[in-house]
Write a structure and sequence with these properties.
Elements lengths: L2 H16 L3 H4 L15 E5 L2 H6 L7 H9 L4 E3 L9 H17 L7 E6 L1 H13 L5 E5 L19 E8 L9 H5 L6 E8 L13 H15 L2
Length: 224
């Protein structure tokens, strides 16, 4: 065989072997084809970083999903189109929750979680569903000036809420102002300010500082 052909084949083999395979190796986190009404479901909505830069950068998107999956939750998540409207995507996200409800999943078995822009989307879902039994984990999703036009009418918020944010965060902060506008008979809220120097990027990785209180809240009846 010609040496040039051999060299070309060898180079091609090396290229194939070195190509990234992270996406192929990841499990599917789409809407389940078969719905188990007794399972616990989490819809996770990622931040703007993943929306624009993808899941393999500084924000460890798949590691975060796995952290919830490893705790026994059925995780549902997808990479959003770039620069998608929070309001329009919120309608789609709310419709996805309604599909589980229509399939017989109790509202108390459903959690909607999100970081940053994903947290704003989760708030949109809460305002659209107005279901006091659904739970929400808002991770640094309140007070974001760049997304202020995307927030819902907070008076319509219903559900069980856990708000988490880093004390050093310069982008987002407390959800107390949002929760105070909701009707108290349809909302239960807990907020934890996490002592961390990581700022808004605290939620870029599934670190114990925020994962443990989130899981403890959910397992302890946060979504009953």
């Amino acid at each position: 065989m010609n040496r040039t052909i051999i060299a070309a084949l060898f180079s091609f083999a090396l290229l194939v072997m070195s190509a990234p395979t992270s996406h192929a190796a990841e499990p599917s986190y789409g809407m389940p084809s078969t719905v188990n009404p007794s399972a616990s479901y989490i819809f996770f909505h990622h931040n703007y970083y993943v929306e624009t830069k993808g899941p393999d950068g500084d924000c460890k998107y798949y590691d975060i999903l796995k952290a919830f999956s490893d705790k026994g939750f059925v995780v549902i998540s997808e990479i959003r189109p770039k620069n998608v409207s929070v309001i329009e995507y919120g309608k789609k996200a709310a419709a996805d929750v309604r599909k589980l409800l229509a399939a017989g999943v109790p509202a108390g078995n459903i959690t909607v979680a999100g970081h940053s822009k994903g947290g704003v989307i989760a708030l949109q879902v809460a305002a659209q569903l107005e279901n006091p039994k659904v739970s929400y984990v808002i991770m640094a999703g309140c007070g974001i000036k760049a997304l202020e036009k995307g927030y819902p009418d907070f008076a319509k918020l219903k559900g069980n809420f856990l708000s988490l944010y880093a004390t050093s965060d310069k982008v987002a902060g407390s959800c107390s102002a949002a929760f105070s506008q909701a009707k108290p008979d349809g909302l239960s809220a807990k907020e934890v300010a996490l002592e961390s120097s990581a700022g808004h990027q605290l939620f870029f990785k599934p670190v114990d500082l925020w994962v443990e209180p989130a899981i403890a809240w959910l397992k302890g009846g946060g979504n009953d």
